[in-house]
Amino acid sequence: MGALGLLLLLGLLSGGSAVIHSLRYFDMASSGLSSFPEYVAAGMVDEVQFVHYDSVSKRAVPKQAWMDQVTTEDPDYWDGQTAGYQVYQQVFKGNVETAKKRFNQTGGGHVFQVMSGCEWDDEDDTTDGHQQYAYDGEDFIAFDLKTLTWVAPVRQAVPTKLRWDQDRAVKQYRKNYYTKECVDWLKKYLAYGKSTLQRTERPRVSLLQRSPSSPVVCHATGFFPDRVVVFWRRDGQELHEQVDPGEVLPNHDGTFQVSVDLDLTAVPQEDWGRYECVVQRKGFEDIPTPLDPALIRTNWGKTGRDGGLPGSFLVAGSVAGALLLVGALVLAGVCWYWKRNDSAKRPAAGSDTSSEIPEGQKRLLAPTPDPKS
């Protein structure tokens, strides 16, 4: 998995009143994938999606009710967002074709992805930012905010790096955006969605087992935000073997769930009492659950306090599968906010294509080198 994927899976612990907040934008342009829109964009604040655009609807739309507040300050906000994404749709469509040329490809299904955004620690006020490009699931090029240079992990991206490194004005603009403008917008969205984004809900923990020979699953659900750690320990020591941690997944109500499997194949039942699952979140007491057969819920017998697995666990597999598709589309998701007039909403996009950009929009975009360069 490349750095782009790792960042998407990154979970940060929240501590007491101190939290590392994030504002992330995702863009995906595809070629040869008839089941996907040509271009999809999404934006997420603290891992909650708040805006969506795709090439089918051709409209930027809010995904949270609290985003309606933005129009009280800027009545033209959504029109501006839509206009920006329509431009970016053409830019990223060109990026796919450029990448295909760089990799000597003529057909097949291909995906060009961009992830960008910023983080803000509300305790020490430190910030960070990132902008990364990927092609067909592999890292292509990334911006190093500390050195203000582009990093090309593959030779096909070197022409892009050389060209973009020469544009000092755009690099300085990106630095200002990711260290200031992006953070300002993050704080604004946090204020809009305070009742939702800054709420705290404790997890509910269950022990689950599909069959007598299956792993025992520690399933935590209903928590918010998504920054929890779930692990198994034996005799008070955290286990790194015998366990298979899962990803944090969203529930339909906006909360999250996560499961961690424990393989007990070689463990006699009389030793189960040495094991316990621990759900941990900084600022709150740990939630330990002993590996007691009486507490295990199953779908193969009336074991424990009630027989049968909770619905969220039964559909977890299908949810995970669906998320792979949604994740691909979200990787399409929104880049940065649209900068229009004196209200900066999006930073400059890094286009490496010769796509035609409408007059008046070119100042928002990086130079568009010839695809063959």
UniProtKB/TrEMBL annotation:
GO terms for biological process: immune response. Residues 203-280 form the Ig-like domain. InterPro entries: Ig-like_dom (IPR007110), Ig-like_dom_sf (IPR036179), Ig-like_fold (IPR013783), Ig_C1-set (IPR003597), MHC_class-I_related (IPR050208), MHC_I-like_Ag-recog (IPR011161), MHC_I-like_Ag-recog_sf (IPR037055), MHC_I/II-like_Ag-recog (IPR011162). Belongs to the MHC class I family. The chain crosses the membrane at residues 313-338. This is Class I histocompatibility antigen, F10 alpha chain-like. Residues 343-373 are annotated as: Disordered. Keywords: Glycoprotein, Membrane, Signal, Transmembrane, Transmembrane helix. The keyword Transmembrane helix applies. One of its GO terms (cellular component) is extracellular space. Pfam families: C1-set, MHC_I. Residues 1-18 form the signal peptide. The keyword Hydrolase does not apply.
